[in-house]
Amino acid sequence: MNLIENVFETAKKFIDNSVYVDINYDQLKVIAKKITTEKSLEFPKENVGNEFKTCVLELIGDSINYCYWYGSGYIRPANASSTKMFELVKSAFKEYNNNGGMHSFDRCLDTLIKLLSMERFPLLEDRVRHLNELRLNGQEFIKTVIEYKNDKLDFLLNSMVQIFPGYASDIFLKRAFLFFCQLNRKFGWFEKDMYKIPVPADYQLPKMLQYYGILDYDEELQDAIESEQQIQKGSIAECEIRAATILACQQLCYETKWTTPQIDGYFWLRRKEVETPFHLTITSDY
User: Fold this and answer.
1) Which of 234, 237, 227, 202 is nearest to 22 (CA)?
2) Would you list the domain boundaries of the chain?
3) Each residue of 130-170: pLDDT tens digit?
């Protein structure tokens, strides 16, 4: 199976018969022209240091990079966030080495789980399960990623979802695609493939696309989002939001000639400029 094509095909099935979400392609073309004339924002540059360790930390963080609240975006015990989560990952793996001993992969994972538990991160049992999936083959997978970093994204994507079922469970493979987008941002890897992969569809991108007039929600869904009602995971409305995000960003890539990480970054880095609420779904997919 070609996982990239399958995600696009699945998204199209939802939007071809959409009930709650539409894509305004005329407005999309207007925004595409607009954003190509603006000064781009960039993710902060990092000193990536050791290539292998950087990739390991990215895999670990990506495996649990989802849902940081309980029912409302404002209810976050201990101020849980993706930033805080990655800080805990770096802290737990500060002395990590891949030669075993006191600072082995397993020992560092144990420390991370204790930190996440103490901070009372939402969906903790899911996070522990996803982290434990990495124990057996996580380091070997990173070795394979580095070996095939130039031209084997399809192979690596297939390997990821086979080895780590937690990644495969998402119908739109958000965290899987985000992992490779992040490696592209850090190292420039998989550049030719970054024009063809689906955008990692989450909470913030659809919020931004709606703000720019690219996505249109029906009144029932809009009212639910504004009143902070939970949109059920796997519901038609939730799937349509993410499917429309994927197809709209695919078209934006075509119109602008930008890569998926560039389109993703443009909107995500501007998310705090927009006060419009995002949809609330309790999920480990994003």
Assistant:
1) 237
2) 3-43+196-273, 51-192
3) 999 999 999 999 999 999 998 899 999 999 999 999 999 99
Q: Which residues contact 137 (CB under 8 A, 6 or more apart)?
A: 163, 164
**Predicted confidence band of residue 19 (pLDDT cuts 50, 70, 90):** very high
Q: Where are the alpha helices (DSSP H) in the chain?
A: 3-16, 25-35, 51-63, 82-92, 105-118, 124-147, 153-163, 165-168, 174-187, 204-211, 219-226, 236-256, 260-268
For residue 39, pLDDT beyond 70: yes
- Cα–chain center distance at 272: 17
Reported as a single tens digit per residue, the pLDDT across 177-201 is 999 999 999 999 999 999 999 999 9
**Can you name the residues that pair with 217 across neighbouring β-strands?**
21
Contact 21, 104 (CB under 8 A): no
How far apart CA 31 and CA 56 sit, in angstroms, is 37
Structure tokens of 171? 């119908």
Q: Are 48 and 54 in contact (CB under 8 A)?
A: yes
- The mean pLDDT value of the chain amounts to 95
